[in-house]
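User: Hello! I'm new to structural biology and keep hearing that structure can be predicted from sequence alone. Could you demonstrate with Nucleoside triphosphate pyrophosphohydrolase? Please show me the input and the output so I can see what each looks like.

Assistant: Of course. The first part below is the input, the amino acid sequence of Nucleoside triphosphate pyrophosphohydrolase. The second part is the output, the predicted structure written as tokens.
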Amino acid sequence: MSEDLIFDPKGGMPRLLEIMARLRDPETGCPWDIEQDFASIAPYTIEEAYEVADAIERKAWDELKSELGDLLLQSVYHTQMATEAGMFTFDDVANGISDKMVARHPHVFGDETRDKSAEQQTRDWEKIKAAERAEKQETGVLDGVAMGLPALMRAVKLQKRAARVGFDWPTTDEVIDKIVEEAQELREAADAEHAKEEFGDLLFVMANLARHMDIDPEEALRAANAKFMRRFRFIEAALAIQGRSPQDSDLAEMDALWDTAKAAERAG
């Protein structure tokens, strides 16, 4: 291993690969890093992807470089473990995605015309991906939708796949009617297990409504979370002026402050 490369501030990608190999070295590496495996690192990979999305959503461009580095480290980490197991190397990963991008963009790298709409390109992209799934013997309509996706995102992807073969409500009205039906079934649930099932059905139909309305449900829920935080912090700040905290208040007072925060947001 090259000490000069590890401490070279301009070492780029080779430097990061060398650092990761050193961290995983069974004799001289970091005990924590050595103990990890694909399954233990996977949650960090997901978390880092969300932190990239969060920085972009907040337009925190100074943070984005760091968050992208954290996400890149996840790819390097998984690849180092695969290299140790004799499965593949980082070059294999890079060449694989490069081959995929070239194959999926024949209008850029091949002889197909670029004179097509974004919608047509999306349809062509889906055809290419369908052919790739067929090569993997993924012949079912829903095959290949990753199990590890966030549940709302996976619900939308499953519904999109089913819609391609006509299994879909034609308008949002039917979806909203189904939401009302599922909400009533949740209200009538006989026990906790039944309520859990009906709650899942309701969430699934809500994801379908988001798809029909061209709304990203994950993005919408993140925005709702952010709004909740803003308004609750307003409540905390308003109470703090009086030398109090939410524990010293009650629901009626905090609800009134919530309405004040909402009115201020709309006015501003």
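User: So the tokens describe the shape?

Assistant: Right, they're a compact way of writing down the 3D structure. Reading them back into a model, for example: The chain has three domains: 3-102, 140-215, 219-267.
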